[in-house]
Predict the 3D structure of the following.
Amino acid sequence: MSRELEKRLISIRRHLHQYPELSNEEFETTKSIRKWLEEEDIVIRSTGLKTGVFADIKGGRPGTTVAIRADIDALPIDEKNGLPFASKIKGVMHACGHDFHTAAAIGAAYLLKEYQAELCGTVRLLFQPAEELGGGAVHVIKDGQIDDVAAVIGLHNKPDMPVGTIGIKEGPLMAAVDRFHIVLQGKGSHAAIPQNGNDPIIAAAQLITALQTIVSRNVSPLDSAVVSVTRITGGNTWNVIPGDVILEGTIRTFHSGIREEVKETFYSIVNHIAAAFSQKAVIDWFPGPPALHNHPAVTEMARSSALGQSLEIIDPSPSMGGEDFAYYLQHIPGTFAFFGTNGNEGWHHPAFTVDEKAIIKAAYFLFESAKDLLNSHGKW
Ligand code: NI
């Protein structure tokens, strides 16, 4: 394990950490990644996207193409962890560790470049923008970057797992994400004369409670789903019943059948409760990434690559969080792993950290598993 490479990757990660950029605005990040790859003569692919970097390392021997994906965007969070290399951009922070993923994938690229002559096939690097918006992967796919790719691997840091561990699991690992926005349209009135209006605050209160029965009464206790109402806005003073109330929230599920059923029940409850109070509900529905299901054979190969590097393999609990890597898996087989980074706080927390000792380990894991996938010549 090269000390020099490790130092270089840590400095790359710190640079990214100091200059985080929001989804679809990763312009400087894109420039830096291009520069770091070009320094090692890695061939950059053309793209129609404004941000993101795509590159190929074509081996000296024939074979298929596999991809390594890293996400590159940050979050609108004010960093509060006292790190000497904390964010210099106010209100923006790499609070999900995508700087870690980017540095690890650059490390894998450097290792692959060294090994290029012996490589059987091509490794494509996908430095993907806008993961946090849940749509970056869709643009990468539309841009044709995975058209000739036979399998894809990726990872996410996991602060609650120690360095040296990796969570690998076939099947469902992360949830499908749906977002809803409801306007309950009632009729405003004087607070003391409610009979002249249709109070949307009362309807909203009934609605929030009723929505909680979707998980408790409609989804099997052996399956999982979450319905969270996260925002409610209505009224602006104490003696007026408002005309409408806005509710927002999210629904998470692991199986497409349950996702559909939950959506149907949700619409039915919202519309019927609104009707019961002589009101109308306007529902906007924003489907996000599907559930992330890891491909069995590719996952098995990644597991044996991890064992080969003495990583301790953990059977990870699935996360109700979403991950737009799932879009790639709708097109091609692949696997997504959780990588132990022993952080202070969970994802998206202002004091989030990663232990940098994990960067070189993640770089080797991506390098070895891409190589092993190519060596198996598409037998998955
Ligand atoms: Ni993330």
The longest strand covers residues 61-71. The pocket of nickel (II) ion is lined by residues 96, 98, 131, 156, 347 (CB under 6 Å). The two ends are 29 Å apart (CA to CA). The chain has nine helices and 16 strands.
